[in-house]
Amino acid sequence: MKTSIKLLLPGALMVALALGFNTAFARNENRAASAVSPLHPTFALLDSNGANVLESGQAASTMTTCGECHDTEFIVSHAYHADLGLSDYQANRETWNASNGLFGKFDPITYRYLSPAGDERIDLTTPEWLMTYGWRVPGGGPAVNARDGQPLTRLRPDAQNPEASAYNAESGSFEAWDWNRSGVIEMNCFLCHMQTPNNELRVAAIERGAFGWANTATLVGTGIVERSSLGAGGFAWNTDAFDENGELKIEYVQLQDPTNANCAACHGEIHEDPIAPLQLHACDLTQTQTATTGQVISSQRISESGINLSGKANLDHAWDIHAERALKCTDCHYSLNNPAHALDEKAANPDHLTYDPRKLEIGEYLQKPNHNFARGVSAQFGVAPELKSTMRRCEACHDTNKSHAGWLPYNDRHMQVLACESCHIPQMYAPALRAVDWTVIRVDGSARVECRGIQGQDTTTDLVTGYQPVLMQRTDAQTGQTLLAPYNIITTYFWVYEDRQGNLRPVRKADLEAIYLTGKTYAPDIFAAFDANNDGTLSDSELILNDSSKQSLIVNKLAALGLTNVRIHGQAQPYSINHNVVDRGSATRDCAACHNADSRVTEPLLLSAAAPVGVQLTFPPDATVSPTGSVETVGASLYYNPLNQNDKTYLFGHNRIGWIDWFGALLFLGTVIGIGGHGTLRYLSDRKTPTPTARTQAVYMYEVYERFWHWLQTVAILILLLTGLVIHRPDMFGGFSFRYIVFIHNALAALLGLNAVISIFWHVLSGEIQQYIPHPYGFIDQMIAQAKYYIQGIFRHEPHPFHKSRERKFNPLQMITYIGLLGVLLPFQGLTGILMWLVQKIPSIQDWFGGLTILAPLHTLSAWMFAAFVVAHVYLTTTAGHKPLDAIQAMITGWEETETQESREPNAESEKR
Amino acid sequence: MKQPRSFWMVGLGAILLAILAPLIAFWPKTAEAKEDPWAGVPIHPTHVDHADIVSGEFASGQDVTRACLQCHEESGEQMIHTTHFTWESRPYNVPWRDEPITIGKANQINNFCIGAQGNESKCMSCHTGYGWSDKRFDFADPANVDCLACHADTSTYAKGEFGNPAPGVDLLAAARSVRAPTRDNCGKCHFDGGGGNGVKHGDLDESLYFPSENLDVHMGGLNFLCTDCHTTRDHTIKGRMVADNYSIDPAEQVACTDCHSGQPHPDERLNLHTDAVACQTCHIPNIAVKDPTKVAWDWSTAGADRGDDHYTYLKIKGSFVYERNYQPTYLWFNGNLSYRYLLGDKIDPDQPTFINQPAGGINDARSKIFPFKLHVAKQPYDTVNRYLLQPRTAGEGGFWSTFDWLSALTLGAQDTGMKFSGQYGFAETWMYWPTTHMVQPKEYSLQCDACHADNGRLDWEELGYPGDPMEWGGR
Question: Is A207 in the same domain as A108?
């Protein structure tokens, strides 16, 4: 629109007209200006003494300014963003971690270490820590209070106290720090509640130690305050922005609920511009969440982003479906007492009460908004562990049964083992950190860094491939439910030492620089040990402690500095991935992705392409994620191999119990070989002495229903065996659709069961059941006689020991076999099958006697027996009649040619009946 | 007991039935029902080659038409009743007039070249007839229909003054080239309407002769002709331009749902939009994607010698603004107009005058949010009588030769039968053009945040919502 007006302007005649056109085109422009919350009243900006800043010229204090109406004491004491671990700070001899949060927990990626009081070698003092990490500190907590909870301003400046001193590089010594001069960083309301906070100047103020002005610097650019060499602290308040009462004019009150852009200031890449292509730097730690996981919060289609991403053209979905669907960060990470988002706390109610209307009123909430925000179970953020899983999970908004209806079999079972993210975050499209190796140091003082998902460094010129997150067991802190969820794992290596008091500490960066570098280059002995190609520089591929001589060189050099018991610590930290969700169109939907030998579930993750040798990797103890897999070395590379057997899951198509298949296959093959041999011998003996002809008569052996029952059962069992094989080994039968094969298998199993039930009725009602009931007396002898016949008699053309008749169709061996088959094996197969199927309806079956882990192998075992039986059964039918095919023909037509009783000697045993 | 020998086949059949019947009955359905948009696309029969059929000497366009009508006996009679020939709608009863009125280029004005009356020499080069030079033109004579405009190969044929064949056209060659209309035939007038490429429509311009898939998924990706959607029966072409009508029978209009289902998305949330949002709104994110279109035209500056530039100023026409690839204006639209400026309607020169106003509103269940190109003009009006005037421009003694507004407006008043006080000024006029072509591939359609984010492209309150319906609820 604006360009159109520009085009009109040339020519003096046009001016009046342009005004006219302006009205036509200005309709959409009025709105942007009115986006500021019209609700927030105007107010005076006060300094920490409660005086109007216009009069005092001092920095604005959020605690007093906002505290006029909001309970800022409540807010700051209910905000883990402010606390950052201060409240549980406890220095420790055994570990370097003094808390769970940014303040006190050593992060081996950023490396600089907040030294506890009493340490021999001080890395960061509190003022230095703020200057280093303060860009991620929204104020309050450790930016206001000392480690004992007292205000920092009460600390006496003291060069010996790591809370009230800072290292001066020029003098090379620690100097006292006066907190009253520097001021402290109060919780910065402006940073998150303003449309356009000035983060750049805020960070600049923090980095130069002007803590008290950091929050005021955030306001520069709004017209309220400007940079000025005349004002105190380098800032001057603009009187034009205030009314005659000293209150801000309403148009300067640009307060609002936090937007995604506010969160992005500290958390990671958030791109809200629908037109400008998204760009990012690979593994850029100023975008922490993106650097550690590759998560990008943007509604932009990946295909339209400005990243040289492999296969981008087909990625026409948004980076994050929730961003695309206009959800904001605060829609899920809401204030825990925000009545608009209040969880239905049924659990807290008496049983009879489903809803308690006595909620917090909006006015009360605005006065005391809890700034502890709902959070998930991230492995990497340890602060406020008691609030883990306070967030709504996917299932709280989405009904998985409905959203997966009609295609996903075993929905409940899938939900019982898989977090939604496992399928709905199939791939990360931005690079992420893989390994950070602080055992060595680059000449610029940085660590050797490996970045995954990119072939190089630059996301616009090098090929970005993204990466597939690894699936690990995540335990929900509230429900205790353990599910597979996607993670990145970042491996870090760093030197640790013990000081004389026995404190275990990471080696300071300053000490590393001291042993590796001389001035702006490497020390000669370092060159001698590392410069493999003697080119006078050390590349990343040379900067690896890949042999023990290099390691001992470093150990010795560190020891020379006075560090004792120096060793390398290797840590593998999982980073949860919960954003960048894709909808069903892009989620993992192919059954074979997991139900296959190369299963997605056990896909290994490269931890480091070049690790220092001889270092045992440890996963930090964490209640939310269990590394049940194994770490394996392949050449110089380290991999994490998930082992789903350790998670008590049995994945069809992936997991098998080897001996069952071997046993089954041998049983089957043995049967085939056995009947092959028997058949050959029969054939040979028949050639030698042809079977004497005998008089036969046609007997109506099988009723119509019997035959129908039998053949239906035959077809069903054959198809069940074949489909079962495909389900068992999808890697061998990739051409089949897993989903349809499973359906056919289940449908035929149901048919087989129905067929069996009806046949039981028929057998009972018709009395044919008698055929299957052995008469105990002499039954063993009869079986032996029959066995002898198969072993000897049949080759001599002896008559069958038992005459087959309408009344007595089975010989004793047949009878016992069929009892076993129909009475034991078939019900067993059916029962294990039904239970496996029922797992999707009644997931608790999984908890009985081992669940699928036991049921599935048993089902497989008895399937092998069925297969062996079918072969043997078909063969044995050829022995039953006068001619080989008589029995089969009888099962088809019902009529069998049986030898007449008179044609041979009546059988002694049959007489006994 | 004895069954016939082939009885086993009955049993086999029964067993197969017992197995197949439940499998078929319970076969897992694919969640998304497939639609078949191709069912709505007509099949084009191969057109008879007329090269060997047409013969003779043609002295005039009418001679060609008479030759056509020898075989195509009904075509002439069919054509003379179509709006392509009459340039006039059926009569409508409108609330602000006592008599039924017709609307069309024949008798009304727009805010581009304003009006055709008196300017027939130029305007009628897009009329599907020959020799419309003034009111005496015989609309009943089928021989006056120009068959070649739509059926000749455009490389052999062009139209000149008063719609007659341009000088130098080989009418025999043109007549021998006839076939079913192609994009070129339609495009000659509809892509260049208003006096040049992309002037009038933001969604129809010469980029559609050879469009890429990303410009127009139907014409580029699927190689559609205009007539694939604008299906034609007895020379009556489906699809109406709302600016030249007052209300349109939906049966006469082309709709996306002619081929696509009304709930075509696999995503239920998207389907919930189709009640209130037209397909075009999301699937045509921008107007004039490749070639720019005119969005403003100021006649009041015409006549000055300050150097002509096609996109900003022409002495004969005044100053313009062109825009390319820009966001449409969104209005409720039920397919009809709530107002169409008719010659003689009084205006308030201090307010924009609507040449047309799309009908619809949040409370009209038939209307949907629809994308429009808004064209804003300044055009002459009678300051005493307070109505818009149509100047004679291209016609004899018109503004384009004299650059004198007074005489051009006097002549124009004669042409249109209006009274002219002799006092004139220039008033702002708005005209809305529905955007319905240049449908982009689904990968480029709007996403939720295009409208539902802060500062999204829809002004909810202007549309009548209390706020974003995502939060405040729909209508």
Answer: yes
Provide the 8-state DSSP code for A624. S
Q: Which residues in chain B have Cβ-Cβ distances shorter than 8 Å to A323?
A: 449
Q: Are residues A444 and A514 in the same domain?
A: yes
- Contact assignment for B319 to A8 by CB distance below 8 Å: yes
User: How far apart (Å, rounded) are the C-alpha atoms in residues B299 and B306?
Assistant: 15
SS3 content of chain A, % helix, strand, coil (to 5): 40, 15, 45
Same domain for A791 and A834, yes or no, is: yes
Statement to judge: residues A579 and A712 lie in one domain: no
Q: Confirm whether A530 is domain-assigned.
A: yes
A704 touches B at CB < 8 Å: yes
Which residues constitute the domain of residue A29? 2-33
- Distance (Å, rounded) from C-alpha B191 to C-alpha B180? 18
pLDDT digits (tens, 9 = 90+) for A492-537: 999 999 988 899 999 999 999 999 999 889 999 999 999 999 898 9
Is B19 in contact with A712 (Cβ distance < 8 A)? yes
Q: Is A666 among the domain residues?
A: yes
Residues A625 and A674 in one domain: no
The verdict on A66 and A9 lying in the same domain is no
Measured between CB atoms, does A272 come within 8 Å of chain B? yes
Interface test with B, best of A3, A4, A738 (most B CBs within 10 A): A4
- Comparing CB atoms, the residue among B301, B443, B453 nearest residue A316 is B443
Residue for token pair 């991935």: A577
- Cα A729 vs. chain centroid, distance in angstroms? 26
Say yes or no: A549 and A610 in one domain. yes
Task: State the pLDDT at residue B5.
Answer: 67
Q: Do B455 and A325 touch (CB under 8 A)?
A: no
Whether A7 is in a domain gets the answer yes
Q: Final residue of a domain: which of A252, A285, A303?
A: A252
Verify that A465 and A512 share a domain, yes or no: yes
A11 contacts B319? CB cut-off 8 A: yes
CA dist B282 and B299 (Å) reads 34
* Domain-wise residue ranges, chain B: 48-444
* Diameter of chain A measured on Cα atoms: 132
**pTM (2 d.p.):** 0.83
Tell me the C-alpha distance between B201 and B435, whole Å.
Answer: 8
Query: A711 and B15: CB-CB below 8 Å?
Result: yes
User: A150-200 pLDDT, tens per residue?
Assistant: 999 999 999 999 999 999 989 999 999 999 999 999 999 999 999 899 999
Contact residues, A window 710-729, toward B, CB-based 8 Å cutoff: 711-712, 715-716, 719
The pLDDT of residue A102 is above 70: yes
Burial class (CB in 10 A: 0-12, 13-18, 19+), A778: middle
Q: Identify the helix (H) or strand (E) that includes residue A21.
A: helix A14-25
Q: How many domains does chain A have?
A: 4
> From the list B295, B298, B453, which residue is nearest A326 (CB)?
B453
C-beta separation of A155 from A126 below 8 A: no
Q: How many CB pairs under 8 A join A and B?
A: 129
Q: Do A326 and B306 touch (CB under 8 A)?
A: no
Count Cβ atoms within 10 A of the Cβ of residue B232 and give its class: 0-12 exposed, 13-18 middle, 19 or more buried: middle
Name chain B contacts of A583, Cβ cutoff 8 Å: 267
Q: Which residues of A touch B312 (CB under 8 A)?
A: 7, 10
* Cβ separation A13–B23 shorter than 8 A: no
The reported pLDDT for the residue numbered A346 is 61
